[in-house]
Specification:
By secondary structure, the chain is mainly α. Helix content is 68%, strand content 3%. The protein has one domain. It has 3 helices and 2 strands, in the order H-E-E-H-H. Strands 1-2 form a two-stranded antiparallel ribbon. Strand 1 and strand 2 form a beta hairpin. Helix 2 runs antiparallel to helix 3. The termini are far apart.
Length: 142
Amino acid sequence: MTVRYARNLAVVALAIIVIAPTLVFGAVPGPIVNCSGALPGTTVDGKTQAACTVCDIAKTAQNVLNTAIYIAVFLSAILFAYAGIIYVTNIANHGEITKAKNIFSNVLIGLVIILASWLVIDTLMKILVNEKAIIGPWHQVC
């Protein structure tokens, strides 16, 4: 019992050591909302705040989508690793192998759905925002 506990503790410690630099360097650059949300001419602490425009809404939507995709890819990598550990450590237990295969397939299906939804949203926004912008990001219309 204590050997298994020590092995599990070592795996968790190793995972934290490996994942920690990824978390630090994987930060999303810049704020999600680019404007202050103030009305035109509003001053806070002596500084005039910029009002939100339609361009800021498009940039905010793009930032929210990018952040969601970053989080989804990160969580799917963790779940793939978890399923792989279950699969490798329980090679003789058929129930656990089935559980690991289900985790693999569910994570893969979820990741495909998220990336496909990004593709659909990106295509729709290109058509609605800028008809001539067939190639390139739609949020750079401003």
